[in-house]
Here is the input.
Amino acid sequence: MKLSYRGIQYNQKSLNLKADVKRTSGRYRGGEFKINSVSSPSFKHTSAEKTYRGVHY
Here is the structure.
């Protein structure tokens, strides 16, 4: 995907994420509710060179 910010163009790499979804239900004050929660997404952070005001870190 091609993006631009303040006139600087760059390419975004898409991320393929896989996550396990847990579905739980319960009762609170007589009403039922359902919760979908995500447990530990399986992706790795890539090391990218970052720049802030001309300083690389």
